[in-house]
Design goal:
There is one protein chain. With 287 residues, the protein is α/β, with parallel strands linked by helices. The protein folds into 2 domains: 61 residues, Helix Hairpins, CATH 1.10.287.80; 212 residues, ATP synthase, F1 complex, gamma subunit (Pyruvate Kinase, Chain: A, domain 1), CATH 3.40.1380. The chain has a 5-stranded mixed β-sheet, sandwiched between helices. α1 runs antiparallel to α6 and α4 packs across α6. It is elongated, with a radius of gyration of 29 Å. The two termini are 30 Å apart. This is ATP synthase gamma chain.
């Protein structure tokens, strides 16, 4: 009977776990839809400001603007690493960190700004330099200070290049680790039919006071837009991965409950059969 009680206890525990994981799955699904909608709404603005930056930058010599030319060749590589604060999201962070090691395997020296406690621990564990961590509170509110930190370092010659590494949201079932160059800013080259069409449209405008002075104000804001977009996509990826992980956990718990119930019924039937056999044997011995 002790074995039967143990199996009943395991069945009860598995049922409790399945209820918890089911609730977490539903919460993550709601958060994913909200994060996905926010990221989708910001996409047209990001594309339009990127178009404006490309058009304005094409009107000046890129080497004359500090954010468009290469940084100090002797400087470090700065990486803004966006991960999660919490776990229970499958292999999302593991896959991201594996790609970080691969992408930076040939880097002479790298310095990190982390957004997410998992990324902070990974950087410290890997022995890289951690410049700053913005894992506390709402990560999206850290866009301005993060941008200011690495832009000032780039302009001062501390960094030769700046990258963002995060999980790009592809679909509810797929999140893709990606490394995006931020500084120096890449200027889209005109040449395609669509680019020529945009160039003609922009040519109808008069830019005052000048393209360079407008870029001085626009480029820092554009960099902030890149960081903000990456954070929103990383959040959508996190909730999506957690939703899938919790669904798998719920399915596994239900499968375990089925196996344990089968074992419980089999053992219970064996005990009943044994008791009946004992009763029949006792009755026969009394005759």
């Amino acid at each position: 009977m002790a074995t039967i009680r143990a199996i009943k206890g395991r069945i009860k525990s598995a049922k409790n776990i399945s209820q918890i994981t089911k609730a977490m799955q539903m919460v993550s699904a709601a958060k994913m839809r909200k994060a996905q909608e926010v990221a989708r709404q910001g996409k047209p603005y990001r594309e339009k400001i990127q178009e404006a930056v490309g058009e304005l930058a094409s009107r000046i010599d890129p080497t004359l603007h500090p954010l468009l030319r290469m940084g100090n060749p002797d400087g470090k590589t700065m990486v803004v690493l966006i991960s999660t604060n919490k776990g229970l999201c499958g292999g999302l962070n593991t896959s991201l960190f594996r790609n970080v090691l691969k992408w930076l395997s040939h880097a002479d020296s790298a310095e990190f700004i982390t957004l997410g406690k998992k990324g902070q621990r990974f950087v410290i564990r890997s022995g890289w330099d951690l410049s700053a961590d913005f894992s506390e509170g709402q990560i999206i509110q850290s866009v301005a200070p993060v941008t200011q930190l690495f832009v000032e370092g780039f302009l001062n010659g501390a960094y030769k290049e700046v990258y963002i590494i995060y999980n790009r949201f592809v679909s509810s079932l797929k999140q893709e680790p990606i490394m995006v160059p931020v500084l120096p800013l890449a200027v889209p080259e005109l040449g395609s039919q669509e680019s020529e069409k945009q160039h003609i449209e922009w040519s109808e405008f008069i830019i005052e006071p000048s393209a360079r002075e407008v870029l001085n104000q626009l480029l820092p804001h554009y960099v902030e837009t890149l960081i903000r977009s990456a954070i929103l996509e990383a959040e959508a990826s996190e909730h999506s991965a957690r939703m899938v992980a919790m669904k798998n956990a719920t399915d596994n718990a239900k499968s375990l409950i089925g196996d344990l119930t089968l074992a419980y019924n089999r053992l219970r039937q064996e005990n009943i059969t044994t008791e009946i056999a004992d009763i029949v044997t006792a009755r026969e011995s009394m005759r």
